[in-house]
Structure formats: structure tokens, C-alpha cells
Design goal:
10 helices; 16 strands; six-stranded parallel β-sheet; seven-stranded mixed β-sheet; disordered C terminus; globular; alpha/beta
């Protein structure tokens, strides 16, 4: 059995397999690592989360991979998780972060049937805000290389693909409104709707974002800081829009409801405007909602990716094909324009979350975790 330098034995598998517990570049895996941990429940990310610097590197089980993370994705819902809203039974301290991409540096015997040390993988699994994460091989996705563009597809891309495919009923000529269209998932809703030959309207908060939306095919970007969205929709789309991909909440949700065409569909992907509040909600005009939907034979449907994992791998396969063919832009925001510069290292994730909630990011927010040798096994 493999032993750590100090302390009791911590077995992975028998000695015939021990060669897999090696860094693929030839150096031993560190004994300790850094990771972000939710130490209290709060929607204020900086209050809820602590950077811990001397945590043991976890060991993979028989069906697991140990991944050295090179890039991790930042999601608006990270603060919902740190606030304990997804699973009230989980109590601090707990690991956070949903998605990462990196190299396999160790793996269990069963996992070695499909994966090898040194292989690039992307994954959706809890605890990605760490230098190393144990990932069940069953939820990993092999990728050609460790590029942050692949990371954009894991949550943001699949959310757009599955929700629009399963619920959107897109077809040629339909009018699709995407809110927060220049964000991590909005960029994919815009492009997938264009691939379906729809007319796409996208809301955003700056001229720079409007230019980005035009570059990915958006027919009518609306910078709500310079143009009233309600006025634009009433004047230019008097019959309403057929599908809304909505992730903002609050007044934007109300506006989207009022903008629906007859038999229109409103897909609720999130409501980021409320996540930082104590309740996690942003008020909407719910009292009139049944009457508004009935009047237009319209529908309102929520979408939570966890409920559609049976569709996940097929969606990833399609998105990877689109990106490989050059038919899909995967915009990454590494914080080059952010105060303090690029998001590098786990400590930069606090700035990245602030940057997201200031509405500054274009595309998917990603932090880079550069590898540096430290203490060895």
C-alpha cells in the first residue's frame, strides 16, 4: 500500500497500481494544498468563504481521478451555494466551486480503464476551488487540451443548450430575447438561437458588450443603460417575443413577461439580481402573473441543470463539436480589464465574484491556478 511520508497508511490500491499515483511530469504530488472553504453561511461571498492554505491533498478512490486544476469557472450561483440555499442539510465548513479543468495526476484502478495520468479533463463536481480535486471518473469529460474555452461549456454552455433544446421549441424565424446576453451562459443562448435561425435580441449593460453581442450574431443588442428595454421592445417588436432566456430577475423578469408573444415561452435560468439579498430573491409582480400568462396562452418554466443530467453528455458532445468546427465562440473573461488584473490564484476568486456582481464580465468568468511545486509526499 502507498504510504505518506508521515502518519498512518492511506491506501489507494495495491502496489501493482501505485505507479498511477505519480505526477505526470515526474515530481511527487504535494502533501498539502490550498482551497476555498465556506466557513459560514452567507450570500456575501467574502464573509462566507475562507482561503485555507495547509489542507491535505485528497486521495482518489477506485473509480476516481485526482485532477490538478488549471482553470476554474466562476458562477453567479456560487454565492447561493455558500449561503446554503441548495442543500440546507450541508453545514459549514464545506468545499465550494462547481467546475474545473486540468490534468489527471492520479487515479483509481477502475478509473484507469478509461483515463491515464497526464490526460486533460474537464468536470462538474463540488470542490473545484482548490489546487487539487477528486473527481468521479463517471462525471469527467476528456478534452483535447487544458484550454479555458472548454471550461465555458461545462455549466454555462450546457445550461443554454439543454434548456433551449428541451423547453425552448426554437425554429426558424422565432424571436428570442436573451437577458444578460453577454454573460457566461447568455453568450451561448444567443449563438444557439442563431444556429436555429432565430432572430435574437440581447440585453446588456455597456457599448462594449453590445459590440461583443453583434460579433457573435445578435440581431438587436440593447444596452439598457442607454436605451430603455421596454420602449425598444414595444416599438420594434409590437407582437412580442416567442422565447425569453431569462437570468436576471426582478424588473427584468416583469418586463420579459409583458413582452411575451401569444404562446410565448419564458425560461427562468436564474435571477442574479436577487442572489446577494438575504432571501436570495428579487421581487417580481407575481399577483398579476396568472392573468398575464392566461391572456397570451403563454408559459413560464424554470430550468435547473441538475434535473437534466441524463441529457448532459449528449449536450457536451454537441457543444464540443460546434466549438471544434469553429461554429461556436467560447468567450472567456480572465479579468484582464478588472481592477487588480487577471484572476490568477485561488485568492483572486474573491475579486472575480465582485467583478461578476458589478456586471463587468464579458463571457465566462474564469480564474487560472498556476502550478507551483511545494511540499512532497
Amino acid at each position: 500500500m502507498l504510504r505518506l511520508a508521515a502518519g498512518a497508511a492511506r491506501g489507494i490500491v495495491d502496489m501493482s497500481y501505485a505507479r498511477h499515483f505519480l505526477d505526470f511530469q515526474g515530481s511527487a504530488i504535494p502533501r498539502a494544498m490550498q482551497k476555498l472553504v465556506a466557513t459560514r453561511l452567507s450570500p456575501a461571498f467574502r464573509e462566507a468563504v475562507t482561503l485555507r492554505r495547509d489542507c491535505p491533498v485528497p486521495l482518489p478512490g477506485d473509480g476516481d481521478l485526482l485532477v490538478r486544476n488549471r482553470f476554474v469557472g466562476i458562477n453567479a450561483s456560487d454565492i447561493n451555494y455558500s449561503a446554503g440555499r441548495y442543500d440546507p442539510s450541508v453545514k459549514p465548513p464545506f468545499d465550494i466551486g462547481f467546475e474545473g479543468i486540468g490534468e489527471v495526476v492520479a487515479l483509481g484502478l477502475s478509473a484507469s480503464a478509461k483515463y491515464a495520468v497526464g490526460q486533460a479533463v474537464a468536470y462538474v463536481a463540488p470542490g473545484s476551488f482548490a489546487e487539487y480535486t477528486v473527481v468521479p471518473a463517471s462525471v469527467a469529460t476528456p478534452v483535447p487540451s487544458v484550454k479555458p474555452e472548454y471550461l465555458t461549456l461545462l455549466v454555462s454552455g450546457t445550461t443554454a443548450y439543454i434548456s433551449l433544446t428541451e423547453l425552448g421549441e426554437l425554429s426558424e424565424g422565432k424571436k428570442v430575447l436573451v437577458t444578460a446576453a453577454a454573460g457566461g451562459t447568455g453568450q451561448f443562448a444567443v449563438q444557439l438561437s442563431k444556429i436555429a435561425k432565430c432572430h435574437v435580441i440581447g440585453t446588456c449593460s455597456s457599448d462594449e458588450k453590445s459590440a461583443f453581442l453583434r460579433s457573435i450574431g445578435c440581431d438587436r443588442p440593447i444596452n439598457y443603460r442607454t436605451e430603455p428595454v421596454e420602449k425598444v421592445l414595444k416599438q420594434e417588436y409590437p407582437e412580442g417575443v416567442d422565447v425569453v432566456y431569462e437570468s436576471v430577475g426582478g424588473p427584468m423578469f416583469d418586463l420579459a413577461v409583458d413582452s411575451l408573444a401569444t404562446k410565448g415561452r419564458l425560461l427562468v435560468i436564474g435571477f442574479i439580481s436577487g442572489y446577494q439579498s438575504p432571501t436570495g430573491l428579487s421581487p417580481v409582480k407575481a399577483a398579476a402573473l396568472p392573468a398575464k400568462l392566461l391572456k397570451k396562452s403563454a408559459s413560464l418554466q424554470g430550468f435547473f441543470l441538475n434535473h437534466y443530467f441524463s441529457k448532459y453528455q449528449a449536450a457536451m458532445d454537441q457543444l464540443l463539436q460546434l466549438y471544434t468546427r469553429g461554429d461556436l465562440v467560447c468567450e472567456v473573461d480572465l479579468g484582464c480589464q478588472a481592477p487588480g488584473g487577471r484572476f490568477i490564484g485561488l485568492e483572486s476568486i474573491f475579486r472575480a465574484v465582485d467583478y461578476m456582481y458589478a456586471g463587468k464580465n464579458i463571457g465566462k468568468l474564469v480564474a487560472e491556478l498556476p502550478h507551483c511545486a511545494s511540499s512532497k509526499l
